[in-house]
Amino acid sequence: MKNKAAGLLFCCLALASGTARLGAKEYYVAKHGSDDRDGASPINAFLTIQKGVNALEPGDILSIGPGEYRECVWRNKLGDLGKDTLIRAGIPGTVILRGDVPAPAFKKTEGFNFVYDAEFDREVQAVNEVNTLTVLEVMPTVPELEFNPGSCSYDKEKKKLYISTSDLQAPEHHFYTVSVTNMHGVCLVDPVRVTVEGIATAGYNSALPLPRNKHGFNTAWGILLFNPRNCAVRQCDFFLNGGGIGLHTRDGGSNLIAQCQAYGNGSRHDSSGGNILCYGPNHDEIRNCISYLSKTQGIRFYAGGKGPGVMSHNLAWGNGYGDIWIKGTGFEASGESRGSNCVTLGDCNILNISHSIVGSHNSYRRPSDPMPPDNIQVSKEKIRLEQEFADPDNFDFRLQGNSRFRNSGPRGSDRGAYPYEANIFYVKPTGDDQLDGLSASNAWKTLLRAARGLKAGDTLYLEGGTYAADFELTASEDAGKAINIRGRGTTPAVVNGSLKISKSHAIAFERLDFAGPVSAMNSRNISFHNCRFTAPDTSIKAAAADGLRITHVLFAGFKAAALDLAGCSNIFLSGNLFDNLHGPAIRLDRAESLLYSGYNSYAGAQAAWQVQSARLSLEAAEKYGERYSLGLAPKVVFNGGKLRLANFTLFAGRGPLGKAIGPERAFREKELKLVGPKVHSVSATTANLEWWTSLPASCELGWGENADCTNKVMFDVNCFGSYSLAGLAPGRKYYFNLKALQAMRGVDVTWSTNRIVPGSAPVSFTTLASNAAPCAFYVAPDGSDANTGVNRSNAWRTLQHAAGRVNAGDTVLVASNNYLETVRCRATGDSNAPILFKAMPGERVTMDGWQRALGCSFVVTAKS
User: Fold this and answer.
1) What one-character-per-residue DSSP string does 661-704 give?
2) pLDDT tens digit string along 750-773?
3) What CA–CA distance (Å, rounded) separates 135 from 242?
């Protein structure tokens, strides 16, 4: 069986890699390999990428087989100017270097509201909440987690890992990995004419800043090229690293980053880093890249270099400090450092910007110095994006046929990132087949009309709704361009009839629901992505199909098979979700038909595949090349004819490249969640009110002596809200509530902000008749927060615990120590009853920010 799997891999690599360049040696790495072999063929492949990279001489090729490789790769002085040296995935998108491992199961930590723990015996650099693309960075103490949603802490002595989730929900709503290495995924020092192509990295991070001799920018990167010359990074993916792609050009230059995606990268140790960074550019270029949800920067050229940096055709959104930047290269004034044909949904900070779409503002252009007229600044245009662009909900910002931005630029040019072409068509249930179909308002009505005359390079958008007719497609490929047929927006487009594809080349279907059967005969390069199939017999039947590609598709309701594949070759399956409780997910006449299959999920794991007449379990299918797949059952709900995956969180983040198994949408607007409010404590004249939010939020607080809460105040909170009332009457009943909350703009929420109007009744409290006698409490490094705190021998361990226990008039006496914590004052004093934090006489107390992990020592908000 192992020989069979090795043979399949040999076929995969041979087909994907093609013929080696004349005079070059080609080496291979594969999961079945061994570093004791020579690596000269797929059968005799190396086991580790490091061994393969060590073997390379200038001009050589390293082809890496599918799989996850948990290693850090380093090489000094690889390549020369006379030859191209290539490090590539044998099948692009199937090779991932990992600096993380699966997380253990977490349970609630006693004494905390939002903290969970698990046994773990390795050094922790970060915890990754994969399904939300959130790096839970390490905090020095566990109490910090209660006030910092999306953080973690590791106790080396107890070998225990603690986390707080990003959204205040329990950990079972998420999928986690743990970063355990503080080195870069790939670090090439002084490389020359080296190309890295088709690989991915994830989980490389560092809890503390890295020293300078690590060649980084204080953190661990997915790939770092230090002083590169004439190098390229192409078609690579980087997610949940301290930094994604980093170039430190220094004495090098003329490098290229192209067709890469970087998402969810970023570290507090390097605010100038993030997803894609070129430091000190020298005629370097970043083009056709996508960047989103970085903790810090999106795509950036930074700091003075010896030549300009150029950006073009990049897309970025949801990045913490800015989407696209060119800063301080020294070539802005001359116009040599420039950006063009870029799309950002947030800030685009480039002085010389042309033919681009900017979401909010450009900090390098003053109001008196407006954006050049060939750009579109969304925040100032006051437009409805869906009326102007092809499909803005899914990042297609090409112009519609009747867009106001056509012919409105200098000398009658089109404004924005993409000059108009009459190759995008629209169909909707309320359309009219007599119209031209070139805009959403002039959409056709039927698929029969829409499918007529489609040619290579065309895109057909289906608005949400139901399309009942059967239709057929026959299309030939032209110069490598595909016909794209896609659902538009977020409302499902349901094809109720059958779809027949015959003698066709290069047709791509995306975001469509197929309620009828689909067949593909004598065709090649047909793909289905982010689709849902609910036909009752067989979902897709293919015969003599080459290069069939099916990714992130949900198959439900079939009785015979989801995929019936006969005489097919080079089939690529990844991230698919099969509800195969009544029939096999995949029916094959030969296992060799598959080029690659991985990260799928099968509800019926005991009958996942059928090869000829033999039923194969998921375990048996793994021996034929099925990789990293799961046996999890989807809960599919039909409501009003619409399909919904009820347990989608079970599959989120578990698919290929950190994405979902089943339909996946890259745009992830975080939801604002609220816990509370509640009364923390009262005195005779004060009350201390608390609540938690999953995102920084602006809150409207109401209070008063009746349930109407007529006294109002607006108050911003950074996830933990604490508001105190003073000057109240003793022994009197009061009410308070949160009337509304709004997620703060620019913090994890893009385009629209999530608003909450709590519907619960106001919370009431009654002040004390008189204040209790003032108390003195003690904090010391040898104390415990389980103690009483009333004397030195029973001292508490943390100032934060003390801050949660004291009330008006109390004093906290603190012993000498280096305290790694932020103290959030949760109670207010009063004019004649102050709260005092004080070092014990003769002792020295230091508040330590633990290398920028903590932003401040004491937080005092809405207190007296």
Assistant:
1) SSS--S--PPPP-EEEEEEEEE-SS-EEEEEEESS-EEEEEEEE
2) 444 577 888 778 999 999 999 989
3) 8
